[in-house]
Recover the amino acids of this structure.
C-alpha cells in the first residue's frame, strides 16, 4: 500500500498567465506557495481474489473491470498511462472540499501519479511529476486550466514559476528570511466563502485572446517579480497587501464571473475593517478569500466576516511526499 500527501496551493501573483493561450505567445509567471492542508491518495495493489479489478473510492464508489468504464476522469487516464491490468484499489481523502480555488484536482493528479510510480518502485523528479500531471489535465482531459497548480503542489514552499512558449517551466525558489515568512503567514487570513465553482468554466473567458484580456494578464504577470522582491528583501512586507489588492482589481476586469456581489461585499467589508488587500484564490467565482491583514487589525476583520469560516493554516515547505510505503500485495 502506498499513501501520498500533497499540499494545496495559494497563489499570490500572476494567476491566469499559466494558461497556454497566454504563454504560447509570450511567457507567463506566477508566484505561489503551499499550505499545510492536504489531499491524501491511497493506492493498494490487491491479490487476485476480488470481484472487480478496479475499486475507486471518491465521492462515489466505483467497481469496474475495464479501465474505459471508470467514471473518474483522472483515475481513468492515469491507469491508462501505466497500463494497469491488475486488481487495484484507489482511495482519496482531503482536508479541503474540491472546487474551492486551492488546486484540488491538480493536487490529486500529482498525488496519484506519485503513488503509482512508487507502486512500480520508480523514482521520478518533481519536474517530471508536475509536467505529467499537467499533461493529463490540460492535454488529455482538455481542461481549461493552467500548469501552476501542478508545479506548486509538487514542489511546495514559495516559488516563482515561469511558463515558456516551448512548454518548459522554469522553477525559481523565492529566498526569504525565516522571520519574514513568519510575519507574512501571521498577516495572511483565509476565509471560506462556501461558494463553489468549476475553474475550467471560468477560465474559458481568459482563454480568449482579446487585446483587453491579454493586457490585463500582462499586468498580473508583472506583479510576480514585485511580490518576489518584497518577500526576498523582507522590508515593507505590508506592500504584499497592496500588490494583492492591485492584482484583484485587475483580475476582476477580465471576466464578470471572477467576482460577484456577494464576494465584493465580503471584500469591501474586509477593507473597511482594516485589510490591506486580498483576492479570491484560483480562477475566481468562489472558494477561499485570501486577505492580508496586519495583526492589530485582524480582530476587526474577523468580526466583519464572522459569517465566513476562518481557516487556520501554516505554510507548507515540502510539497508532495510519500507518507507510507509497503509494496507487499
Amino acid at each position: 500500500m502506498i499513501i501520498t500527501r500533497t499540499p494545496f496551493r495559494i497563489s499570490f501573483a500572476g494567476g491566469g498567465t499559466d494558461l497556454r493561450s497566454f504563454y504560447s505567445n509570450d511567457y507567463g509567471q506566477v508566484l505561489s506557495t503551499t499550505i499545510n492542508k492536504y489531499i491524501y491518495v491511497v493506492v493498494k495493489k490487491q491479490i487476485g481474489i476480488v470481484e472487480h479489478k478496479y475499486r475507486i473510492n471518491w465521492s462515489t464508489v466505483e467497481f469496474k473491470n475495464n479501465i474505459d468504464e471508470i467514471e473518474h476522469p483522472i483515475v481513468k487516464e492515469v491507469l491508462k498511462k501505466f497500463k494497469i491490468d491488475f486488481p487495484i484499489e484507489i482511495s482519496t481523502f482531503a482536508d479541503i472540499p474540491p472546487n474551492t480555488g486551492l488546486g484540488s484536482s491538480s493536487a490529486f493528479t500529482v498525488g496519484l501519479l506519485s503513488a503509482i510510480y512508487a507502486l512500480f518502485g520508480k523514482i521520478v523528479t518533481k519536474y517530471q511529476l508536475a509536467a505529467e500531471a499537467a499533461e493529463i489535465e490540460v492535454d488529455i482531459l482538455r481542461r481549461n486550466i493552467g500548469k501552476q497548480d501542478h508545479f506548486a503542489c509538487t514542489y511546495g514552499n514559495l516559488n516563482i514559476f515561469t511558463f515558456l512558449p516551448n512548454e518548459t517551466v522554469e522553477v525559481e525558489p523565492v529566498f526569504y528570511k525565516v522571520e519574514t515568512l513568519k510575519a507574512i503567514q501571521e498577516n495572511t487570513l483565509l476565509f471560506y466563502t462556501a461558494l463553489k465553482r468549476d475553474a475550467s468554466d471560468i477560465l474559458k473567458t481568459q482563454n480568449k485572446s482579446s487585446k483587453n484580456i491579454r493586457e490585463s494578464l500582462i499586468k498580473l504577470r508583472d506583479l510576480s517579480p514585485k511580490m518576489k522582491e518584497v518577500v526576498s528583501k523582507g522590508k515593507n512586507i505590508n506592500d504584499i497587501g497592496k500588490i494583492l489588492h492591485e492584482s484583484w482589481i485587475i483580475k476582476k476586469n477580465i471576466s464578470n464571473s471572477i467576482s460577484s456581489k456577494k464576494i465584493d461585499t465580503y471584500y469591501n467589508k474586509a477593507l473597511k475593517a482594516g485589510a490591506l488587500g486580498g483576492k479570491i484564490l484560483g480562477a475566481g467565482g468562489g472558494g477561499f478569500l485570501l486577505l492580508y491583514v496586519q495583526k492589530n487589525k485582524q480582530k476587526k476583520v474577523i468580526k466583519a466576516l464572522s459569517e465566513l469560516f476562518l481557516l487556520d493554516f501554516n505554510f507548507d515547505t515540502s510539497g508532495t511526499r510519500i507518507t507510507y510505503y509497503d509494496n507487499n500485495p
Remarks:
- Residues 178-313 form a domain with the Alpha-Beta Plaits fold (CATH 3.30.70.890).
- The mean pLDDT is 92.
- The chain has two domains: 2-174+316-325, 178-313.
- Residues 117 and 123 are 7 Å apart (CA to CA).
